[in-house]
Amino acid sequence: MPFRDDKTIAFKDTDLFKSINVGSAELKQRIVMAPLTRLRSTNYVPNTELSAKYYGQRAQREGTLIITEGTFISAEAAGYKPAPGIFTKEQIEAWKPIHKAIHDQKSFVFQQLWNLGWQSWPAALAEDGLQYIGATTDVYMDEDSKKAALDAKNPIHGLTIPEIKEHVANYVKAAKNALEAGADGVEIHSANGYLLNQFLDPNSNKRTDEYGGSIENRAKFTLEVVDALVEAIGNEKVGIRLSPYGWFGNMTGKNDPEFIALYAYVIAQLEKRAQQGKRLAYIHLVEPRVTSPADAEGVNEVEGSNNFIYDIWKGNVIRAGNYASYPDNAKTDVSKPNTLLAYGRTFISTPDIVDRLEKGLPLNAYDRNTFYNPDAKGYTDYPTYEEAIKAEKVEDLKLN
Ligand code: PHB
């Protein structure tokens, strides 16, 4: 497995290696594992043994924060059967040893709570007798998803207000389940064009009721989920992910002139709650270097910055988006108040990424073709630096 050829910096004496508390998690440094879909589950049940090994490897440096892959809050929220859920007893039991593997390394885990909405597969939902849902009836992500929905006789259904309340209740159940499974907290996925983002965004939210139209109305569902989770499990156990610049899932990103206003509003509402004693564990932002998680690095980067958050929000900020290729940006951004950096694709390929960033060692290259394999290949077989060097020496010997 070759190394990446990014410029490297030894981050040892930088702010990246200052300790910080996230909720009750006492982190020894500010490198976070980003949430990453890996599709090793079956029928929404994680492959315990394999995933415990994978997460345990990535938690190997004490005091690291891991955010799990997106985990469905309910069958209605789902549709990709090889992704995991946290809404049945079997799923909770399957997660327990995974979270334990992280805790055994003295690291911490937040479970990401996921609800697909219009990015789901209408046929898969129809097989289970479930509706294909979104923010607005008759408003589709694109022509392909419209065709898929009509072919499956499962046209998109904009949630009614009572259904929105049911989804909020399902977030609460899922959050409690995640804690029962041993997670230290949960992350509300309100980014990357999934259901909560579909309510925030004017491309997908064409509603005319109290959940549509104004920024305040579009933000309501996300903030109701926040409030319900804070009430149920406590503010310190709740984080949230937002992607102001994202286009994935046919979001407007910065094509909407009001996009900063929208996210400034949401973040301000979170700060107001914080000032009343309910500060979330963190706000997690995707940087404009990644406008679609499906793109390779460097593709569709846009100009801009999430720095506006610091004028509004005084709590922890996690920033994500190709920091491996931009170590100078990493150094600058992590020096901002209460800031942590999430690494994604390079955390997949580099189980000892924390040690390597500390020392300025090169990271492992990743193989995109194995991101979504069903098995151990490209999952638990990436080497540490020592193993990589040793393997290379063996290769050299063989060649000689
Ligand atoms: C994906 O599976 O491609 C995926 C999942 C969650 C995200 C982004 C991408 O937030």
Automatic annotation (TrEMBL):
Keywords: Flavoprotein, FMN, Oxidoreductase. GO terms for biological process: apoptotic process. InterPro entries: Aldolase_TIM, OxRdtase_FMN_N, Oye-like. Its EC number is 1.6.99.1. Its cofactor is FMN. CDD domains: OYE_like_FMN. Residues 15-364 form the NADH:flavin oxidoreductase/NADH oxidase N-terminal domain. One of its GO terms (molecular function) is NADPH dehydrogenase activity. It comes from the Eukaryota. The keyword Transmembrane helix does not apply. Belongs to the NADH:flavin oxidoreductase/NADH oxidase family. This is NADPH dehydrogenase 3. It comes from Wickerhamomyces ciferrii (strain ATCC 14091 / BCRC 22168 / CBS 111 / JCM 3599 / NBRC 0793 / NRRL Y-1031 F-60-10) (Yeast). The lineage of its organism: Eukaryota, Fungi, Dikarya, Ascomycota, Saccharomycotina.
